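Need residues for this backbone.
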């Protein structure tokens, strides 16, 4: 089955044919690699595009710059991105800037990570985690 993958850079939806390695695929619009081993910073609009169009699972880290545990977890989240891509798309949403999205997601504390598949929430974790813990948690939910 073809995959639909939203570009982490320009948020264009790309169709990646079945059997073609997504790890090396480039965006048809901005020509950047679809997966560079980094999380992608999203706003409300690009967040909705990822959740609505990606056929791969999408993990979002809801954080804020003033939150010490969020900043402490950032390197672990990047390490998890290197590990989980291109099976999973990793996003970061700044809840200070995108308060309406944070409210819609019923975020009570940060950092909170939410895993989506097919537009639906399938898992949620609050509190900082190590890279290994993030990877294990995600792999459990989307083997
Ligand atoms: Zn692009």
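Answer:
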């Amino acid at each position: 089955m073809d995959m639909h993958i939203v570009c982490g850079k320009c948020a264009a939806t790309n169709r990646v044919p079945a059997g073609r390695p997504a790890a090396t695929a480039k965006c048809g619009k901005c020509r950047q690699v679809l997966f560079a081993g980094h999380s992608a910073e999203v706003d409300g609009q690009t967040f909705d595009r990822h959740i609505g169009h990606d056929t791969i699972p999408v993990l979002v880290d809801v954080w804020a710059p003033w939150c010490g545990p969020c900043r402490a977890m950032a390197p672990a989240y990047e390490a998890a991105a290197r590990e989980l891509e291109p099976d999973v798309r990793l996003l970061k949403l700044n809840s200070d800037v995108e308060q309406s999205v944070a409210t819609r997601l019923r975020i009570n504390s940060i950092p909170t990570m939410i895993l989506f598949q097919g537009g639906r929430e399938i898992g949620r974790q609050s509190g900082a985690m190590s890279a290994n813990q993030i990877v294990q948690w995600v792999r459990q939910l989307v083997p």
